[in-house]
Q: What sequence folds into this?
């Protein structure tokens, strides 16, 4: 490690659980972040600050005035700009040592596998069920683990999914719920995605450094009650994508699900 790296990451290097070995593993890590909003902002910023070597940012959206209440990577002057490019510039200013790759596009059945295959771990910071299921299925087919987070209203949740060793997102939610709160209907407490995003970033760091993760655990956070709960998740043998007899065997099969998912209201992250 260079003298600059030793100085920049000195507070992490002092941690026995982290040390030089952990910092080196982080330096060589490749993390894909899908969604650069309320969750993606803290995930990307903390990973870049910590020294993640390569960070991919996938988001096709533009900064809107209503985003600024919770999406801390952006400021008023960024309104109208592409999120992926804007947050990429911010991360490069925060840490010039980080390699930032931008995908100014939506994750689709046509490009998902090509993007994900280049990464060690992914972060689901999306705000809709269509992307969540697509990312989950792509990670199952690619053998890539990912950290999941969601935030709506006053409550959020986070987990770690890896179909090789445990459950995937579809083991928890085989199908999208019949109704989901929309951004306009339920709102979101500004700090909530920040809390969940920090949990996701911490979990990514822990996995990269120690290969440990909260596999099979769903962490539930109530911001207004200031409480955490935990639910165990079992691998579902009848899971449509990672079960013994999966119905979804390729992303081409995903097309049948897109219509159902796209009609569901978006979460406000």
A:
């Amino acid at each position: 490690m260079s003298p600059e790296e030793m100085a920049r990451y000195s507070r992490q290097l002092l941690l026995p659980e982290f040390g030089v070995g952990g910092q080196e593993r982080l330096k060589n890590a490749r993390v894909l972040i899908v969604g650069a909003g309320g969750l993606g902002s803290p995930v990307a910023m903390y990973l870049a600050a910590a020294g993640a070597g390569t960070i991919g940012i996938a988001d096709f959206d533009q900064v809107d005035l209503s985003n600024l209440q919770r999406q801390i990577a952006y400021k008023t002057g960024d309104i109208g700009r592409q999120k992926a490019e804007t947050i990429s510039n911010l991360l490069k200013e925060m840490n010039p040592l980080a390699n930032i790759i931008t995908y100014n596009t939506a994750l689709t059945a046509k490009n998902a596998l090509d993007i994900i295959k280049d990464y060690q771990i992914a972060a689901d910071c999306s705000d809709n069920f269509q992307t969540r299921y697509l990312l989950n299925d792509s990670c199952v087919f690619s053998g890539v683990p990912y950290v999941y987070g969601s935030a709506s209203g006053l409550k959020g949740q986070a987990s770690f999914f890896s179909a090789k060793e445990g459950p995937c997102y579809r083991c928890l939610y085989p199908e999208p719920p019949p109704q989901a709160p929309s951004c306009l209907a339920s709102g979101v407490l500004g700090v909530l995605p920040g809390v969940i995003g920090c949990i996701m970033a911490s979990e990514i760091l822990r996995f990269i450094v120690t290969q440990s993760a909260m596999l099979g655990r769903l962490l539930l956070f109530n911001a207004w009650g200031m409480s955490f709960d935990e639910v165990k998740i079992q691998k579902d043998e009848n899971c449509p994508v990672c079960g013994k007899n999966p119905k979804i065997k390729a992303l081409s099969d995903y097309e049948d699900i897109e219509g159902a998912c796209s009609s569901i209201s978006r979460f406000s992250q």
Summary: Residues 30 and 126 are 19 Å apart (CA to CA). Strands lie at 30-34, 54-58, 99-103, 121-124, 146-152, 155-161, 217-222, 227-232. The two ends are 37 Å apart (CA to CA).
